[in-house]
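Protocol step 4 of 6: structure prediction from sequence.
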Amino acid sequence: MSLSPTQLSQFARLLDERYATLLEEVRGELEASQNLQYIELIDRVPADVGDQSVGDALADFNLAIVDRHVQEIRDIEAAKRRIEDGGYGVCTDCNDEIDPARLAAYPTAKRCHACQQQGERTYRHEATPRL
C-alpha cells in the first residue's frame, strides 16, 4: 500500500507550510539577535562576570534554536526531494513503507518505526559525554 497522489500532495503541503514557518522563525531570530538587550550585558564596561555569563548563555540559546530550525529545514528539503524522486514514505534502511500515521505525525520521517527504534537503541549513547 503506497501513498496515494492525494496523500503525497497533503504531505507536500504540510512540508511547505512548516518550511515557510521555520524560515520566518529563523529570520526573526537572526533579526532579533542584532537588537537583543543582552548585547548591552556583554558590552557593558566594566563588565560584570555574571552579566557576561547571562549574555553568553542567551546568545548560545538563540544559536541553538536557529541551529535546530536550520536542521529541520534541511530535513524538509530532503523529504521534498524524496517526494519528487518517488522515495517518500519508504524507509531508507529496510525499504519497507513508512506508516502514513507516522508520516502525519513526523512528515520528514525517513525510517519506519522499527528501524528508527533500532537506530536509537544502537546510537543513543554516542553523544553522551563521560567523565
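Step 5 (inspection) to follow. Confidence is low (pLDDT under 50) at residues 37-46.
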